[in-house]
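Example 371.
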Amino acid sequence: MSQTPPAPDAGLPTAVTEPVVTAAVTAALEAIAAASSTAELKQVRISHLGDDAPITVAGRSMREVPKEHKAATGKLVGESKGRISKALAARQEELTAAEQEQALATETVDVTLPTDRRPRGALHPLTTLTDRIEDFFIGIGWEIAEGPEIESSWMNFDALNADPEHPSRSLQDTLYLAPEDSGMLLRTQTSPVQIRAMLERGAPLYVACPGTVYRADEIDATHSPMFHQVEGLAIDENLTMANLVGTLDAFAAHLFGGSPVTRLRPNHFPFTEPSAEMDFRCFSCEARLGTDHDPAPDCRVCGGTGWIEMGGCGMVHPDVLRAAGVDPERYQGFAFGLGIERLLMLRNGVADMRDMIEGDVRFSQHYGTEI
Ligand code: DAH
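Predicted structure in complex with 3,4-dihydroxyphenylalanine:
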């Protein structure tokens, strides 16, 4: 009967006596069975198998067990420890599986829930329209040129043949930079890019120059102190106003579809001679009534006139060519300029300039990426 544990009175330390060890195993098994989570089971392991646990104390007391009892007592303690460890491992497995199942059930992804994706931005319709304008000019073989928004008054006025008394030079129209004699201003038009392009690239030359311009205006439904223009300039031998009209006709068709036609009315600009105001035949009336009809009297685009005023144009003044180092005996040129905000308002039915400035992304979004 070597399995029979020694009697408590056999000179054994109390910690390894059979009732104490058995009680330790019973308490441990009960605690293991009662643990309802892996976290709780961790605590149970510390209490029943840790440094201060009765079974561990029993193991340490083996040193004091008399020789003749060592085998039987050691076996009892070892087997007890084994039972506790085994029960712990089994319960650990059970609880881990249950917790994983629980996690899978609660962490299910509901693909029907609405997303909280961040709203996307949008290109401003002025950008999209400017791209469309550039596409036209690139398509007919012209280059795109840009210039600085802070400009010298020589580039903005003098080189463009503006008289020293020209009204556009006044403080009411032009934003000058301090100090007063700096000779610098915020350009009031994209026309100085004509001068820069001629000076930098020479003739012959075909450029379109889109950009931001500034004027001392209050913001209202049709004005803003900062807006955009595009300038066209062609310099070559043998250019005439017929080339200008042909270019504008093709440009109008690109912008408005259909077959809009350009009409020129006499006007005056210091940098062109002759100068003209350019009108495009109303695309809206044409779309509604065809080309053989009078304009619609109730047209919201042209107001019943049948024409929309687009900007200025003319043959480049010989003094302007000279100022930009181009020989007017050999080269002629035509130029035109128009406001992009105004174009967007007419073409896309924007009623108020302020909608373009306020930066509400919903305004841009409804134009999409192609206008
Ligand atoms: N720079 C003029 C303006 O801001 C527009 C303009 C008129 C440009 C006639 C031109 C032109 O190139 O030939 O009002």
